[in-house]
Amino acid sequence: SVVGLQEDVWHHIACTFDDATNVKRIYIDGQQKAQVSNDDGPYSRAEGLSLGRDNQTWLGVLDELQVWHRA
User: Fold this and answer.
1) Which position has the higher pLDDT, 42 or 23?
2) Which has the closest alpha carbon to 17: 54, 57, 71?
3) How far out from the chain centre does Cα 54 lie?
4) pLDDT computed for residue 54 by the predictor
5) What pLDDT digit, counting tens, does each position of 24-59 carry?
6) Is the pLDDT assigned to residue 19 strictly greater than 80?
7) How far is CA 61 from the centre of its chain?
8) Would you say 23 and 17 are in contact if contact means Cβ atoms under 8 Å apart?
9) Measured between alpha carbons, how far is 67 from 6 in angstroms, rounded to an integer?
């Protein structure tokens, strides 16, 4: 989880997955904040990709959401 994001301010969050190395990276406002390497692929949850929640109530807005095949 990400702690310390200023509330009531827009943030740019990007996630990438490198298929050759199985590395996932998370960028917040242009700076890499997390990296993990595993064999689960782009996402590992059986129910698929979910955005804006993690079994909690999402209090916010997702704007200009895009999913790309390349980074």
Assistant:
1) 23
2) 71
3) 12
4) 65
5) 898 999 999 999 887 766 666 666 666 766 666 667
6) yes
7) 15
8) yes
9) 25
Beta bridge partners of 57: none
**For residue 68, what are the CA distances in angstroms to 2, 3, 15, 17, 56?**
23, 26, 10, 11, 26
Token output for 56: 């909690």
Q: Which two tokens stand for residue 67?
A: 């999913």
Contact 51, 62 (CB under 8 A): yes
Check residue 29 and give its pLDDT.
94
* Contact indicator for 33, 27 with CB cutoff of 8 Å: yes
Q: Within 10 Å of residue 68's Cβ, how many Cβ atoms?
A: 7
Q: How far apart are CA 65 and CA 62, in angstroms?
A: 7
Q: Token pair for residue 69?
A: 């095949």
